[in-house]
Design goal:
The protein has about 250 residues and is of the alpha/beta class. Helix content is about 45%, strand content about 20%. A seven-stranded mixed sheet has the order 3-2-1-4-5-7-6, sandwiched between helices.
């Protein structure tokens, strides 16, 4: 992707409540399964984006302290503004950082949270990093895209090969968890509302809002069309793929 694509991409995505599928109800469901968290857990949100789920966590875990990391500085700036607006500066520390090298002490977190982000550094590599940062018996809650049906249409296959060429099936993720020293507690598929309410519906609205800004700019309008193709594809072919929420626990070994 060229620089112009990313310029338009972030013009769309930075204004959204979140940058991928998910919602508060799914976060609460996953969190309810982390049954042995301490009263005041230390939480790491890896690949936090603009922090939609970070703010859910702060609300759902009122005694937690949260470290939120993302590599995109403007997203962290937006999250920081929300933190200050809501008076959460004492509980959430948001900073620009590299998911592959989080620069956090080993065994220092009770819960690591990551929605739709671990694949960016390779799932197995990410699982090793998370295991290193978790205390024994600590939890990892994350979402990952998986295939649900064989022989997806070419446009679906092409879309995921561009963004996530290593995407696998549910059994592949479970095997990676087992090989990485995690105990699977539960997994569940995100409902369609988790794609639309806080992600695709605001995305389509944002794209519509931006089109007049780029009147006469054929390249920008073509990029907006390209971005708009993603929710349109989901309407037609959502049965071929899914986002799965995994809640796992680090073994003592």
């Amino acid at each position: 992707m060229n620089q112009r694509f990313w310029e338009i991409f972030f013009h769309v995505y930075e204004d959204l409540p979140r940058q991928g599928p998910g919602n508060r109800a799914c976060a609460a469901q996953a969190l309810s399964l982390c049954a042995t968290l301490p009263d005041a857990p230390r939480v790491l949100d890896l690949g936090c984006g603009v922090g939609g789920q970070t703010l859910y966590l702060a609300d759902l875990l009122p005694s937690a302290t949260i470290t939120a990391i993302d590599s995109h500085a403007p997203s962290i700036a937006r999250l920081q503004a929300k933190i200050e607006e809501r008076g959460l500066s004492g509980r959430i520390n948001a900073s620009v950082g590299n998911m592959g090298h989080p620069e956090q002490p080993a065994a220092s977190f009770d819960l690591i949270w990551s929605e739709g982000a671990l694949y960016n550094i390779g799932l197995r590599n990410a699982l090793g990093i998370c295991r290193h940062l978790l205390r024994p018996n600590g939890y990892l809650a994350f979402t990952d895209a998986i295939w649900r049906k064989e022989n997806p249409p070419p446009e679906v296959r092409a879309s995921f090969e561009m963004d996530y060429p290593e995407m696998g099936w549910l059994a592949d993720d479970i095997a990676a968890l087992d090989a990485s020293g995690f105990e699977l507690i539960v997994h569940f598929t995100l409902p369609d509302a988790a794609w639309w309410d806080d992600f695709y519906t605001p995305m389509e609205r944002r794209i519509t809002e931006l089109r007049p800004t780029y009147i006469g700019d054929a390249e920008a309008l073509a990029i907006l069309d390209q971005l708009a193709a993603e929710p349109a594809m989901h309407r037609r072919y959502a049965d071929f793929y899914a986002y799965e929420f995994f809640v796992v626990r680090r073994s003592f070994a």
